[in-house]
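Fill in residues.
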């Protein structure tokens, strides 16, 4: 397996980072001027509209025969992948590193940077009609779901990257680390059989994980592969389109997901480079060495080790107040929390 060095990835990120995007609340108005600028050099096409008639765009870059489809923000409040996508676009457009040339000559990338602009506008998971697009792959009741499927059918990609964010509650089994990045090779049916497509998907994930373990060791998790018949990844995998799920999670003291953004970028570039550099995707066994993604974190825990008081756990609730994204700390549990970890722990000697 060919791997990119950390020094190259660091350099690519530093040169390509899209400085116009920052934080968690990314809306159509934030990416529209960036798309306009990219339109001068690469193909940017308005391919349809959301339920509330906001534009949905598709970007095309590269000339290779291997087709890759990437989409982000099908959940409007999950924007880390969107930032990483624009970092990737800058990198592909501005950098002449051999690895970038390899990607552009071997692959053609099709990117939908924001599938759910209505949800993004109000920072919600669902679309304007309260539909979770990631559970609408079969019925396709939402116009956004229909649009994504039409792009899939017309492109018929070799690989897909489905970009999401996960909550701060997730950690990596067997460690005390939050799950900064998690992966999934979706199942195609209830038995979770290791089909050829799943093995190929796992092979790409193995390559991404090996790079990430060098910079965030023990902070990469693996999602359960329980089959969800209406989920996008499971459906696309079942249809024969290898689909890699990337979940961007928490890095210590990084609630804006700016550090995680960098590692999301690392994973994307390594994954795409791996596809560009290989014609056979067979080795997959190491996928199962990635520890499980588990729910074992709270944002804050108050500990009372010297008294009879119960530990108290808090989570941040993300809200839009006065047109600002606010992290509102809410009490969620008071019990024996010895088996739980926290991103911020307060020990109360009382």
């Amino acid at each position: 397996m060919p791997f990119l060095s950390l020094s190259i990835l660091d350099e690519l990120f530093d040169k390509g980072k899209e400085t116009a995007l920052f934080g968690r609340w990314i809306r159509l108005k934030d990416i529209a001027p960036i798309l306009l600028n990219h339109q001068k050099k690469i193909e940017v096409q308005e391919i349809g509209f959301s339920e509330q008639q906001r534009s949905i765009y598709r970007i095309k870059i590269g000339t290779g025969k291997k087709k890759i489809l990437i989409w982000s923000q099908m959940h409007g409040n999950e924007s880390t992948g969107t930032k990483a996508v624009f970092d990737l676009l800058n990198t592909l457009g501005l950098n002449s590193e051999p690895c970038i040339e390899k990607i552009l000559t071997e692959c053609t990338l099709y990117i939908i940077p924001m599938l759910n602009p209505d949800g993004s506008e109000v920072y919600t998971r669902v679309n304007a009609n309260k539909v979770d697009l990631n559970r609408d792959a079969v019925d396709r009741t939402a116009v956004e779901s229909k649009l994504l499927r039409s792009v899939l059918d017309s492109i018929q990609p070799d690989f897909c990257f489905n970009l999401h964010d996960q909550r701060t509650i997730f950690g990596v089994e067997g460690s005390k680390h939050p799950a900064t990045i998690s992966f999934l090779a979706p199942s195609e049916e209830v038995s979770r059989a290791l089909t050829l497509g799943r093995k190929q998907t796992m092979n790409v994930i193995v390559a991404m994980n090996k790079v990430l373990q060098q910079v965030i060791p023990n902070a990469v998790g693996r999602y359960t592969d329980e089959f969800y018949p209406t989920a996008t990844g499971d459906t696309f995998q079942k249809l024969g389109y290898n689909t890699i799920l990337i979940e961007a999670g928490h890095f210590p003291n990084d609630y804006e997901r700016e550090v995680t953004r960098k590692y999301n970028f690392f994973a994307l570039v390594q994954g795409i480079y791996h596809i560009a550099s290989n014609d056979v995707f067979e080795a997959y066994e190491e996928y199962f060495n990635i520890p499980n993604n588990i729910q074992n974190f709270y944002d804050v825990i108050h500990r009372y080790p010297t008294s009879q008081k119960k530990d108290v756990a808090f989570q941040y609730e993300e809200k839009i107040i006065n047109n600002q994204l606010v992290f509102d700390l809410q009490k969620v549990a008071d019990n024996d929390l010895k088996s739980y970890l926290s991103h911020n722990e307060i020990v109360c000697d009382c």
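The radius of gyration is 20 Å.
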